[in-house]
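not sure who needs this but someone in the group chat was asking about tRNA pseudouridine(55) synthase from Puccinia striiformis f. sp. tritici PST-78 so here u go. i didnt clean anything up, its just raw.
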Amino acid sequence: MNCKKYFTNLPQLIPDWNNSCSSIYRRTKEIHRNYHHSEMDKSTKKTSSEPAAPPSSNNFKCPLSGLFAINKPSGVTSMSLLEAMKELFFTSKLFVENPEPYEIQTGTNENGKGKKSRKNKYWQKKNQAKAIKVGQGGTLDPLASGVLIIGLNSATKKLSNCLDCSKSYRTIGILGCKTDSYDSDGKVVGLSSWKHVKPEEIRKECQSIKGEHWQIPPIYSALKMDGKPLYEYARNNIPLPRPIEARRCQLLEIEMVDWKESGEHSYKWPTEMISEEESKIFQLAENLVKQTGIIKSESTKLKNNQTENGPEKFNESTKREPSLEQEENNPKKVKLVDGSSGNSEAQSSIKNQPVAPESKDVVTMDDNGKSPVFTLEMTVSSGTYVRTIVHDIGQAVSSAATVVSLIRTRQGDFSLDTESDTSNRTGGSKTLPCIDWSVFEKAIQSRSNGSDYPPNEAGLRKWEQELLKHIQVS
């Protein structure tokens, strides 16, 4: 079949052949230009360093993903707050499509017993809520309060970026008492005289410990090896399989900002004393560390300038901290001490600690509440134990000290400071604010009482509005 004649006669078949070709050409060129501009816009968005704008009440993707921070209260675990929040997410259209409440329908099986129907819409929503991923970028101990970064859904992958950044703390230490955990949630191990300690000595120690140090966590309550706490080795009289590995940390800034004598504060030592059996185990654990020794890893790198435990388990120390359980024959490790002695600067943030002078003052629990407290503000690298710093300062001034208050005031870009406070910082850098936990707490209490806060015009409750206002979408 000869098709050539058909193509030759094509202009005759179409009345306005030339205009049609010109129109097609112009339309093709317009499509190409629009496509080129859209690709340029995408490229600009990818390379932009500006944070993504929070989604509006009418413009969000379900389920919601992103990073935000709450102001954690003292006295509760971080994980318990996350679990409570997931119950709220289950009722929100930010995370579940059409989250209307459904009654639980029950049927009867062959035995006549009640059984929840798998096809019930309630359980469909429940399973949808279970699929919501919630993680934290560095937990806080129950005693501690302040900035707690939370990741939702796909943004949980970004929580690792929160692990290696610097953190700022405000902590209060009380003199005269030593506990097994170095804070007031622990048990009292010993009491020491404090009357000779002056505020100037604390300030001097703060200046002397700035910079890089090697640190070990509280021996009795925090140290583990091969997944087993050190007190288990001591209790069973088992030698440690290898030396303790010190953690590298850096005190970027530290300053004593307040000092209060007895009568000017209400803080007291914890009242629970360590038992006689626990005291023996505590001494054995300390002896085990001294006998085995302490080593430091030169492969541990500080990441102070990045803007510290994600979804897995994290503590005041971080997931990215150097492990205490690495192999003894690691060629990158350097043994600090010869022989069996574990005494070295790696045991403490304080160098050349003085030997406590003999004191005629006998300190008992009757003196509880009579010792002064000091307040420290510090900015530290990832992996720093604030409790250990306070404990070491107490030892350095020939006394003892334990943490009675700990607030994380900043972590990376998130801060407790208001916008006006952050604008006064050096360089005018601004940080992202936190959502106060009371916002979620009121919503949780309303649900438990069978009521709920009235939504706004967009159908969003107060806590949902605050979340959309603060979240950094991924």
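also The first strand starts at residue 66 and ends at 72. if thats useful
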